[in-house]
Amino acid sequence: MQVLNLIQGTPEWLSARANFFTASEAPAMMGVSKYSSRNDLLKQKATGITPEVDAPKQYLFDRGHEAEAAARPIVEKMLGEELFPCTGCETIEGLPLLASFDGISMDESILWENKLFNKDLHLAVEQGDLGTYCWQLEQQLLVSGANKAYFTTSDGTEHNTFGCWYQSDPVKRAKLIAGWKQFQRDLAAYQHIEPAAKPEAEVQAQLPVVVINVTGQLSASNLAEVTPKFDAWLAGTKTDLATDHDFANGESNAKFSRATAKALKTKAKEVVDQIASISDAVRTLELYASKFDTLGLKLEKAVKEQKELIKSNLINEVRNKLSEHCARLDDRIGKRYLPPIQGNWNDVVKNKRTIESLRNAIDTELARAKIEASEIADRISLNLKTSGLEDYPFLFADLATLCLKANDDFAAVAAARIQSHQAQEAARIEAATARIAEQERIKAEAAARQEEQAKVTLIPTTSEPQNLSPEPAEFKADTTIVHSSISDMTGAGHRTFQRASARELVDDILNNLSESALQEVLQYLQTAFIRQAA
Fold it and tell me: Which of 351, 385, 419 is the last residue of a domain?
C-alpha cells in the first residue's frame, strides 16, 4: 500500500479522493447505501460536483470525528495495539482504489473503523452483522493488505464503545472488484443529464362556493355564476401525463376533484333537506358532482397508467442494454455459452414514486446484472483455456453446460476425463502391441522351422542309398509316387525311369529333363522330404 501524506477532512484529502474509488463510496457503488445512490455517485465522479454539506450533516460529521478521537485510546487498550490514522491507495486489477483508516497498526496487520454510536448499530455489532459497512471494510482490507479489521460504534466513552472483528470474505472481495470494474466502464460511458427539479403541484384555483338558500322555494342560488367556472376548470385540467410535474399536478387535481365532488354532494343533500321541490338545483349539483368524480377517477387512472408505461419503457430499455452487454461477452468468449442473465426489474421498482427514483433503481439493478454476466463470462473463458480441451474435443460434448462450473470443479472434471481416456488408449495400444508381437513370434518360429527343414539333404552323399525316413515302407511308397510323377512330367515320348536308387534317379533326371521340369521335380522332392521329416 502506498501511504499518502494527507490529513483526513482537509481540502487536499478531498481533492485526492476525487481521483480514486474510495472505500467509503463502496456501498453506494454496490447500490446499498442509505445516503447516496449509484447514479448519484456516477454523477459526482463524472462531473466533480459533490452535494453541499448542510449544517445538520456537518454537525454529525463533527460529532463523529470527536467520538473517533476519544475512542482511539479506548480501542488501543482493548486491542493492545497503537493505532495511527492514515490514508493509503493501491492500483488493483487496473482500479485506482483508496481507503482512509481511522486507525491502523504499525505493521499494517490490523485496522480500525469507527462509526458514531447509535442503538441500531450497537445491535448490529452485537450480532456481528455489519450490513452495508462490510463493503467499506472489505476495500480497506484489500488496499491495506491487513489481516483483519476491528469495527466499533462509539460516542467516545468506554461505556458506549462496542466492537466486533471483520475478516475478508473472498466472495465479497470478488464482488467488490467486479463492481468497481463495471462502475469504471459505466463512468467511461457516462452522459450527464440534468435531472428535473422536484415536481411541485401547482396551486389549485379556488372555485366559488355554491350558495343556495330555500324558504319554501328557491330563494337564492349562484349556480348560474359558478357552473361556467366549473366547466372552465374541468375543461382546462390536463389528463395526458408524462413528466413528474404532470404526475404531481394529476395527483393534486384528482384529490381536488374528489373533494369538490364530495362538497357538491353534501350541498345537494342540504338543499334536499331544506325543501323537496328544488329538483333543478339538486340535479345541477349532482351533475357537477358526477363530473368532478369522473375527472378525479380519470386522473387517478391516468397517473397509474402513465407510471406503468414509463416503468415498462425503462425496463425494456435496460433489458436491451443487458442483452447488448451479454452479446459482447459472447463475442469475447467465441461461442454462445453464456446462460440467460435476468434482472430483478419488477422487484426493484416497487414503491418508487418518481421517474428519477425509478431510473436509479433500474440502473443499479442493470449494473448488478452486468457484473453477474461478466463474472460468468470470465469463469467460462478461464475454463476454456484448460489444458487438453483442444486435443480431446470429443470428450466434452456437454461443454456448453460444463464450462459454467467453478474453475476448480471444471479443471477436476476435465482432468478426470482426459486421464480416463488416456488410460483406455494406453491399454488399447498395449493390447494391440502384444497381439502384433505374438503374430511376429509365430511368424518367426515358422520361418525358423522352414529354415531348419531347408537344411535337410535331399541327395545322400554315400554310395549306398540312405533311408531318410524312420518308416522305410512309407518312403518306398513315396519313391513310387516320385517315379510315377516323373514319368508323367517327361511325357510319352520319353522313357520311364526304372532305377530304384536315389543316385540313379537323380542321374536320369539330370540327363533327360528340361530345366523347368527339373525345378518342378526338385520342388516336389523337397516337399516330400519335408513331410517325411515332419
Answer: 385
Q: Is the Cβ–Cβ distance between 289 and 271 less than 8 Å? A: no
pLDDT tens digit sequence for 468-519: 444 444 444 444 444 444 444 444 444 444 444 555 666 665 666 566 666 7
359 inside domain: yes
φ/ψ (deg, to 5) at 422: -65, -40
Residue with cell 376548470: 233
Mean predicted lDDT score pLDDT of the chain: 82
Mean per-residue pLDDT, 24-51: 90
Convert the pLDDT of each residue in 237-279 to its tens digit: 888 877 778 888 888 888 888 888 898 888 887 777 666 556 6
For residue 83, give the 3-state DSSP assignment: coil
Cβ neighbour number for residue 358 with a 10 Å cutoff: 19
In a shared domain, residues 277 and 366: yes
Same domain assignment for residues 206 and 245: yes
Cβ-contact 414, 389 below 8 angstroms: yes
Residues 220 and 182 in one domain: no
Q: Is 172 within 8 Å of 131 (Cβ atoms)?
A: no
Chain mean position to CA 481? 92
Half-sphere CA count of 160, side-chain side, radius 13 A: 14
Give 93-108 pLDDT, tens digit per residue: 999 999 999 999 999 9
Q: Which residues contact 79 (CB under 8 A, 6 or more apart)?
A: 110, 112, 150
| In a shared domain, residues 150 and 222 | no
| Residue 424: how many other CB atoms lie within 10 Å | 10
Mean local confidence (pLDDT), 440-469: 68
Which domain range does residue 325 map to?
201-385
C-alpha cell at 129: 452483522
Both 183 and 61 in one domain: the answer is yes
Domain final residue pick, 188, 221, 252? 188
Q: What is the mean pLDDT of residues 417-438?
A: 92
CA-CA distance, 227 to 208, in Å (whole number)?
Answer: 9
The burial of 527, by beta-carbon neighbours within 10 Å (0-12 exposed, 13-18 middle, 19 or more buried), is given as exposed
pLDDT in tens, 334-384: 888 888 888 888 888 888 878 888 888 899 999 999 999 999 999 999 999
Whether residues 138 and 251 share a domain: the answer is no
CA-to-CA separations, 194 to 198, 367, 512, in angstroms, rounded: 12, 21, 126
Separation between Cα atoms, residue 383 and residue 401, nearest integer Å: 11
